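Hi V.,

Quick status before I head out on leave. The structure for the redesign project is tokenized and pasted below; the design run finished overnight.
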């Protein structure tokens, strides 16, 4: 491996007290060659500098101009995927999020389907209100939630009281196949409560869409965790149809670092390297010194 970056010759001149003539002579030389020549010439500052190069973070930053993202990038491009991924947990949250812009929207949505349901829902609510989510949710998904075993039947029956009687009557008629003779609202709900499980599900799924949305919204407002019962694909389809990538990435700021880092790990090495150049320079240098001393050694001799 060979890494060539723009080193700080002016710093070397000042640190080693080099004359302009010597600086000219050392043009194109490696740091190692300069230090060897100055050590042989009896310059004690060269010995001191050589000892510090592998231990002094600020010196490393100064000599190799690590504040320059281009120099960071050149170094990173000489690392393998595992070495690169070790930098990601060191990054600030917002810089990690910005790295998601290097994915296509399709890829982002596919990865979003794999995050824990509660984080997916949090992302969705950065983009839509509860009312919008229910309105845009396919009816098949509403049916799934309303007939879920995780839904408290008593809660459903309680919220049915807010549905106009004529719609409750239609629910009963869809199951019995006969005109509903009952006129009292509460008695109709009581009749639904006595349906067997199959009839009960049929009654709920037979509701008109608007009323089904009203009931679902009431239930989810009371218990927001119910939003996790909708399929991840239903959410990503909704996002894909209504939002653009910049809006999506901005919403994904609510994801935990662990999930974002997992996503960024799918970037090719060149793009992952670009993302990592945003890492704080001192943190970058410290990690380089601690985990990749062979890279520093190569910088010195190249």
């Amino acid at each position: 491996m060979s890494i060539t970056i723009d080193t700080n010759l002016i710093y070397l001149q000042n640190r080693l007290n080099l004359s302009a003539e010597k600086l000219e002579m050392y043009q194109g030389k490696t740091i190692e060659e300069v230090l060897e020549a100055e050590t042989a010439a009896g310059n004690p500052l060269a010995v001191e500098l050589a000892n510090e190069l592998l231990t002094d973070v600020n010196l490393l930053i100064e000599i190799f101009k690590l504040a320059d993202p281009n120099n960071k990038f050149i170094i990173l491009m000489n690392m393998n995927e595992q070495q690169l991924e070790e930098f990601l947990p060191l990054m600030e949250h917002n810089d990690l999020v910005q790295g998601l812009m290097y994915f296509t929207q399709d890829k982002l949505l596919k990865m979003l389907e794999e995050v824990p349901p509660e984080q997916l829902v949090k992302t969705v609510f950065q983009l839509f209100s509860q009312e919008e989510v229910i309105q845009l949710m396919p009816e098949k998904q509403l049916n799934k939630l309303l007939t879920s075993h995780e839904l408290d039947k008593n809660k459903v029956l309680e919220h049915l009281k807010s549905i106009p009687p004529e719609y409750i009557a239609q629910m009963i008629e869809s199951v019995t196949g006969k005109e509903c003779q009952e006129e009292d609202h509460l008695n109709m709900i009581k009749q639904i409560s006595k349906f067997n499980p199959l009839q009960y599900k049929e009654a709920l799924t037979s509701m008109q869409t608007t009323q089904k949305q009203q009931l679902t919204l009431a239930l989810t407002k009371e218990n927001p965790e119910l939003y996790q019962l909708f399929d991840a694909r239903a959410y990503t389809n909704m996002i894909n149809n209504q939002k653009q990538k910049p809006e999506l990435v901005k919403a994904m700021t609510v994801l935990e670092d662990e999930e974002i880092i997992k996503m960024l790990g799918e970037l090719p090495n060149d793009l992952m390297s670009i993302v990592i150049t945003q890492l704080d320079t001192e943190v970058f240098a410290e990690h380089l010194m601690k985990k990749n001393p062979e890279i520093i050694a190569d910088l010195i001799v190249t």
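Above is the designed sequence. Residues 9 and 63 are 8 Å apart (CA to CA).

G. will cover questions while I'm gone.

Best,
W.
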